[in-house]
What we know:
The chain is an alpha+beta fold. The protein has helices at residues 2-14, 17-42, 52-71, 81-98, 103-121, 128-140, 165-171, 185-195, 216-221, 255-273, 287-297, 328-331; strands at 150-153, 207-213, 236-243, 277-281, 303-312, 317-320.
Amino acid sequence: MKKRKSIKNLIKLFIPRRFYSLVYWRKLLPYIIFDSKTYIRQSNSFYINDSEIKLKADIIMRYHSLEKGISMPQRKIPFGFNVLKTLVNECNEYGARFGFEDMQVIQAVKILNEYYIVHTINGYEFDLEMKGRLLKLFDDFSVKESTKQHELNSFHYSETASLDFLKFSGTRISNRNYSNEDVPYDIIDSAVRLSLNYPSACNRQPGRVYVVSGEEIKNVLAFQTGNRGFGQHTNKLVIVTCDISGYSDPRERNLMWVDGGLFSMNILYSLHYYGLAACPLNWAVKPKTERDVHKICNIPNSERIVLMISCGYPKEKFVQPISLRYELGKVLKYV
Ligand SMILES: Cc1cc2nc3c(=O)[nH]c(=O)nc-3n(C[C@H](O)[C@H](O)[C@H](O)COP(=O)(O)O)c2cc1C
């Protein structure tokens, strides 16, 4: 074994590095093809809404955007009109293809009902065609009442450090409502320290954290696509990254997202423990955007951004999107 290794090293000495780079690509290619093929065929990027689960996922994503809009700290009327149109079309399509009984799609229609009421009581007049389409949809799905997003207050966070896990986990929410009170760095230190017991493959601990504060938050959040309407109130912006230096085989190419995801979840729980309102922010960006933010925050090239988290102390009163979960039977299968 030792002999084979030294022969390999000897060959490497005489063969140019560029050639080796070709060998590495050759090794990686089957994995890239496998990942890409799975993504192309199974995701909703290309074969759009060609299955029940894809259409439903799209409906959930869109209705969540409306329930978020209803819950925004400074709600503007009207909002989300393009989302509304697509959501109405998709709910109609779902009904025609798969029936009118699904819990998540009924929730979508109930949220459309709440959206309709919120707009109407704020003096917005829907055009006759849209009004007719909405009323027909409520009728088709037998929706007689609307949802009502949750009205909460800062007491929600007052005892998080002493709750048993059932209640602690049950009270964790993505909160987008932050007060002006400054979050001291030592609270962030404590939260990140607490989160360091996250599990990682072979205990490689690839997670890193960058904390942005003050004016710089605006500059960084300009690159993120999901913080409109609340990002400007962020008191501390937490950037979770994963260092890929420790992964040593193409089979491990996706482990960083698992390790980084587990680390992120631990951070969210830790922020909750310390009474902070926090919201995960997707980092689904083009390579150039990734490079730009790396530059601003001095993040080394060996790290990839996994997630951003906006946080601050919670507002006295706030409205929280319902974010209805799937029922257990949809998620859990004994094999
Ligand atoms: C990876 C990830 C990315 C997310 N990105 C955003 C985002 O960009 N903007 C946002 O407002 N919420 C974002 N969220 C929060 C989700 O909308 C939220 O977790 C979901 O609706 C469930 O609600 P809950 O966290 O309050 O239980 C994200 C959550 C995750 C896990």
